[in-house]
Design a protein that fits this description.
CATH superfamily of one domain: Ankyrin repeat-containing domain
Distance between the termini: 40 Å
Shape: elongated
Oligomer: single chain
Radius of gyration: 19 Å
CATH architecture of one domain: Alpha Horseshoe
Number of strands: 3
CATH topology of one domain: Serine Threonine Protein Phosphatase 5, Tetratricopeptide repeat
Largest sheet: 3 strands, antiparallel
Structural class: mainly alpha
């Protein structure tokens, strides 16, 4: 977590910034106004289903965005509130909406390890291959952060296992670089290309070796010899 200008922000992996602020106790209204968050967004973030329903019944704009382009659906995803995700989708929330960094609601839920919310978003039609502005996909976030359940669900939903971000990194390269043995094994089991290189010319094996992840390096070397 970083502090920028007195407002706290989550900074997640791969330079995707989720600009939904953490509010200090007693100062929720002020922080909300600063970031342009609506009452619907706040209720969605807090998991207040009855309030969300009431606001929607009164005509709250489901597609309103805060100053960073985040919608109520993104707030709900960030908080892991799958019930509210479903409510918002039933009221026409755009499941493909992106904030100013290109982050989607699906990416929020994957990053924060909310497996049920990931399932709800995928069931609602979220694109598992959507990319942020730096080319990050939900699968890359799942792989690099050890989100094994989400990783499997994303692949079932059709996520491109060998997609690359702006640095040429694949989900496998990112998982190996971060020492995520479980997600490396899952990716290899689903046919991830172990020989692909990033823009620095490094393979997943090279990343694992460089960072001292001997067990992962052994598995990657074994997979490479079988290619």
């Amino acid at each position: 977590m970083r502090d920028i200008g007195g407002i706290h922000f989550y900074v997640i992996a791969l330079s995707i910034v989720l600009w939904i602020p953490l509010t200090a106790e007693g100062d929720e209204q002020g922080a909300a106004e600063t970031m342009g968050a609506t009452p619907l967004m706040r209720a969605a973030e807090a998991g207040e289903a009855d309030t969300v329903k009431s606001l929607l019944d009164k005509g709250a704009a489901v597609e309103a965005k805060d100053e960073n382009g985040a919608t109520a659906l993104m707030y709900a995803a960030l908080g892991g509130h799958d019930e509210i995700v479903k409510i918002l989708l039933d009221h026409g929330a755009d499941i493909h909406a992106r904030n100013k960094q290109g982050t989607t609601a699906l990416m929020y839920s994957v990053q924060n390890a909310y497996a049920d919310t990931v399932k709800a978003l995928l069931a609602g039609g979220a694109d598992p291959n959507a990319k942020s502005d730096n080319g990050t996909t939900a699968l890359m976030l799942a792989a690099s952060n050890g989100r094994s359940v989400a990783l499997k669900d994303l692949m079932v939903a059709g996520a491109d296992i060998n997609a690359k971000n702006a640095k040429g990194e694949t989900a496998l390269i990112l998982a190996a670089d971060q020492g995520q043995a479980d997600t490396v094994a899952i990716l290899l089991g689903h046919g991830a290309d172990v020989l692909l290189k990033d823009k620095s010319g490094l393979t997943a094996l090279m990343h694992a070796t460089r960072n001292g992840y001997a067990e992962i390096a052994r598995e990657l070397k074994k997979a490479a010899t079988e290619e």
